[in-house]
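Sanity check

After download, print the first record. It should look like this:
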Amino acid sequence: MKPIFVIIILFVLFLLVVFLIEIFRRKGSEKKSATNDSDSEKTNSSQISSESECCGQHAVCERDARLLSATQAIEYYDDEELDVFQGISSDVYSDLQIEAFEEILHTMQAKDIPGWLRSLQLRSIQLPDNLKDEVMMLMEDVK
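Expected structure tokens:
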């Protein structure tokens, strides 16, 4: 055999071995990932079941937000100033604070409202009670 053919055959065999190693490595990491996912789901579900209170808005349910927070990065809708409202209950906002939410709500497109609500939930910011009905009506218009 000519040396060039031997080199080509060895190179092809090398690529085949690398390919097989990569396949086995991925299968192993998928099994580990599946095990870790099931463990984290059990942990999340125990946390969720202990807090059975839901905000009443399907798009921003706290239980969904907890699951999303593990998999989604927080997206801001030019509303970074709302971060100061973290942890404040939805029924104690002042009129001035509600106006801050209203200003952002009225400047965004209706199709962005569900994402904005998810962003608020992921950031532990509760939508003021006074705006919940309006938000639901705006979201209905999108459908």
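If your output differs, re-run the checksum step. Summary of this record's structure: Residues 89 and 126 are 6 Å apart (CA to CA).
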